[in-house]
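Schema walk-through. Below, the input block comes first and the output block second. Nothing else is stored per chain. Lengths vary across the set, and this one has 428 residues.
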Amino acid sequence: MTYHPHLQSWHMRVALLLTGQALSLVGSSIVQYAVFWYLVMQTDSGVTMTVAMLCACVPQAVLSLFGGAWADRWNKKALIVLPDALIAAVTVALSVSIARGAAGLALFFVALAIRSAGAGVQTPAVQSFIPQITPEEKLLRVNSINGTIQSVNMIAAPAIAAVLINIMPLWAILYVDVTTAVVGIAFVALIRVARGGGSGAAPAVSVFADMRTGLRYAWRYPRIRSALIAYVFVCFINIAPMNLTLILMNRGFGGQQLDLGFTVLSTAADKLAANEMAWSIGMVVGGALLAAFGARVFRNNMVLLACAFIGMGVCTAGLGLSPTLLVYLCIDFLVGLCTSLGSSPTFTLLQQESTPGMRGRVFGLLTTFSGFGTPLGMLVFGPLADVIDVRVIFVVGGVLTIPFGVWLLRVNRQWEAPCLGVAGDTRP
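--- output ---
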């Protein structure tokens, strides 16, 4: 990294970026929750939720394949600012249409797709911009702060969305995202960086060649191959049905009230917010437990991943069998906990088992599988939710998840490297 005395200190640049992105993220999350809850409460339709999830996920997954190459070739600040501006403009158009009573489902889907596409361009740009403005020895600290911001957003956004949707019309809530986007753009625009020459990055089309190379490499090593296969199937049969928790809450506990002491869950928005917050708090607690005790308790990341998958399966089935709202929220917390316990071991396992020159492509495969596995699962389970009891979907999805955890335990016993000091040597 080249330093220029006339530019801002790295502290200032990082503070501007993280503050701007934190505000933009919380605004986007609040609006995203509000839109999905509005669709659930208005339609109570699995097909509608499926189409909405596809629009919210697929464009980001597709554009993320190219976003990294674009970030290497083009101005990163522009790739951060322009998507925010586009998303703000689309959100204003949606708000005006809702206020006039002219917003049909098609307009909601288009707005979700454009917002998703913007995130697909912006996210890789932010991730590659951080090393550009941060000294290498400070990267871990900055990335940790950014991760903390993400965790806080997961808890705060649904709570704020629940309050707003109970007191404001949807068209007014949308301006929260517009406001935070404008502020985020202003913060990023204030960052001063040195002009640099071209990066010489490969054309975006080379992404497909990299994926083929990564796929061939991953297939040669049983532990990498098994982890990726299990991950994509769990996304399909477990993570995808979890997107139907909004419908499960709306249908299963619509007539129930829950007094938590500090608040009473009575409205549909209250319960949907509690659903998101229980899962998010579980994710945060799981991450904290891993950071504090994970390395000492679990020395084998595949074993931890397998146990997490088994736990996710049991808890997901428990959601479908929950007799009361309180039991449901407790199990939802455990689902978030198990999900968190499975995420970090997956990343660590792939880092340990892959050679440095192939890690990027292996993680590219992971991103692609997770990006497409969940929407494909929604194509199956979403329409089913309008035909059969949605609780059955959770029970079946949970039960089908458990064998993949058991399979990973068997793979670990069969292919565990006899020479533990050789990373990536998974051959017997």
